[in-house]
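[job 4471] stage=fold_predict status=RUNNING
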Amino acid sequence: MKKISYSIMILGSVQLLGQSVSPQVINSAGGGGAVGTSGIEVYYNIGEPFITTLNGGTHIVTQGFLQPEVIGEFGLTATAFVTPNSCSDKADGAVKIEANVSGAANQSDFQLSYYWSPSSFCSSVTTCSTITGLPAGTYSVTVVARYIGSGSALPNDSVTLSNLLVSGSSEPCLVTVYNGVTPNGDGNNDFFYIENIEQFTSSKVEIFNRWGQKLADIKQYTNTSNFWRGTVGDSNEIAPSGTYFYIIDLGNGTKPIKGWLELTARD
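[job 4471] inference complete, writing structure tokens
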């Protein structure tokens, strides 16, 4: 007789093989907030390659790179990607927002504005989908979509992403990560550049897409010959343009460095 295992979902908790897990933020490198007017709150964490989503009635917990979309009343969706740590000797946290209007044939019919708190990090609300140079702290952003097309007027829509946490580190930056990769052969940002990585001869760098699939696993990373060129595995195929995630293990016993990078593929 074949033995069958069951996973039981209970409102407010999850039971798996006798172990109870209450819906909560899995670690501090995440955030969450209300989903439109649905009464559902979404929480997420960043930096672990897991894609399990747990639903506990009025709370959803999503682990890892598969980030939940916060959904507005009229189809606006927004997702936050956070570089979760800032070193003690510099402000190097970053938050990137990806937003669009679901079902819209032409996204250019909508003007997206980003209202950050604190507001001092955004100089123009229509261009602040990404903010960098952030010190440790908690940030939030309200994204507003306004219809500017030539058709019938549509109502404005908005979503708010709150509790976007950039944690502070008590240590100075051991490496500096440059999170823009444009592998077009022009000599600028053609690969994932990590300043001072050569000082750590036991390093390992892993690259994942947002669904937790690993694209690269590079040991003894260098900026001269052993680096990520934006490819899928060991092939020469360039990955699609989009947001990816890195985990850098320096191999010296320090905590892995985690964050996101933006890949712009060749035309």
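[job 4471] summary: The chain has two domains: 7-168, 176-263.
[job 4471] exit 0
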